[in-house]
Structure formats: structure tokens, C-alpha cells
Amino acid sequence: MFTSLAIALALGQAAPQPLKVLEAEFYAFDADDPDRAEATRIVPYVPETSCFGWEIRVPPADRTIRVREVLILPAPPRTWNTDESITTISTDRRRAETELEQDLSEGMLSNDWCIADGDPLGRHRIEVYEGRRLLRRFDFQVVLTVRLPSISSTNSGTSTLAAPIRVSWK
Questions:
Q1: The domain 19-162: what is its CATH number?
Q2: H/E stretch holding 86
Q3: b/e 27-52 (16+ beta carbons within 10 angstroms → b)
Q4: For residue 5, what pLDDT band results from cuts at 50, 70 and 90?
Q5: Is residue 45 within 8 Å of 145, Cβ to Cβ?
Q6: By C-alpha distance, which of 37, 36, 52, 163 is closest to 116?
Q7: Would you state the torsion angle of the CA atoms of residues 116, 119, 125, 130, taken in this order, to the nearest 10 degrees?
Q8: Contact 82, 98 (CB under 8 A)
Q9: What's the CA angle centered on 96, arms 100 and 28, to 5 degrees?
Q10: Which of 43, 85, 88, 113 shows the smallest number of beta carbons within 10 Å?
């Protein structure tokens, strides 16, 4: 940060201002229909189908910026399917840090992930940083889904209910 500030001052340029977050949203979607994303904090556990992501709206600018996304899981997944050139996995395998180069011309920062077989259920968190400054935190849950027979005469087939399932043993 200080290096880029010193270079900008030496060149007579104004240092870039910290990003102003205008709006932020977490959403889930089906991999087969990504245009139907829904704002939610609940992601159904359907491997290779359920996906989730975030968007942060900022003022448009004619530049790119590097942001760091930190995905924190409640337990290690069976495997991480990530690009090792931009993502670092923690030694306990519960945390992935991804360096993202984002174009600000549209005023939007974003990233998404899809659920894979062996991913943990429970509380998850995504933190998005500009340098060391936290831009936004997204807390959400990955939950089991239950397939229910349709009871409506106009809707044949099954429907999916996604809700946290609590089991207590006595």
C-alpha cells in the first residue's frame, strides 16, 4: 500500500481512493440456471447443482483492483477444486484465500462457488477484502434438502425444501 502511494505521489498522480461499498448481496442459484439467482442465506446441499456467490456494487471506475476473498468452512471438505495459482488453502483445510483481479468499469465485484460432493454442512462465511480492509462479510448455511411429493394438482412431480435439519439424540 505504501509503495503504491509513494509511486503515485512521485508520478504526480492521486492515490486511488478506498472502495465505497454501495450495495452487497449474497445469493444462491442452480448451476443449470444461473440467471435465476435468489438472495438468501441458505444454500441447499445438492452436489454439482447448488451454487452460491456474492456481489458488491461500488462506484464504476476506469481501473482494475485486486480483492481477497476468504471462504471459511465449518469442517474440511473432501477436496478443494480451486485454481492453485490464485487460491491458497490453509493447513487445517477449512479456509481458502483467493486473490481476484476485478475490473471496476461496471462497478461490480463478484465471485461464486458450487457445492461439491464431500463439502461440509453447516455455517460458512465469506469475507471480501480490499488490501487489509474488510469490504463485506457474508454468513450463510449449507443445509440438507428434502424431496417432497407435490400435493398441488397443478404441479406434478416433486419439490425441494431446503431447511436446516436439527437432530437431537436423547
A1: 2.60.40.2390
A2: none
A3: bbbbeeeeeebeebeebbbbeeebbb
A4: very low
A5: yes
A6: 52
A7: -50
A8: yes
A9: 75
A10: 85
Which strand (E) or helix (H) includes residue 10?
helix 2-10
| Backbone dihedral angles phi then psi of residue 104, each to the nearest 5 degrees | -95, 5
The C-alpha cell at 96 is 481458502
Side chain identity, residue 137: R
Q: Cα 161 to chain center, whole Å? A: 22
CB 112 within 8 A of CB 122: no
Residue 2 above 50 pLDDT? no
Q: Is the pTM of this model over 0.70?
A: yes
Decide which of 168 and 71 is more confident: 71
Query: What's at 93, amino acid-wise?
Result: R
